[in-house]
Amino acid sequence: DTEVTQTPKHLVMGMTNKKSLKCEQHMGHRAMYWYKQKAKKPPELMFVYSYEKLSINESVPSRFSPECPNSSLLNLHLHALQPEDSALYLCASSQVGTQGAGQETQYFGPGTRLLVL
Amino acid sequence: SQQGEEDPQALSIQEGENATMNCSYKTSINNLQWYRQNSGRGLVHLILIRSNEREKHSGRLRVTLDTSKKSSSLLITASRAADTASYFCATPDTGGFKTIFGAGTRLFVKA
Question: CA separation (Å) from A43 to A15, A69, B40?
Answer without folding.
Answer: 23, 24, 12
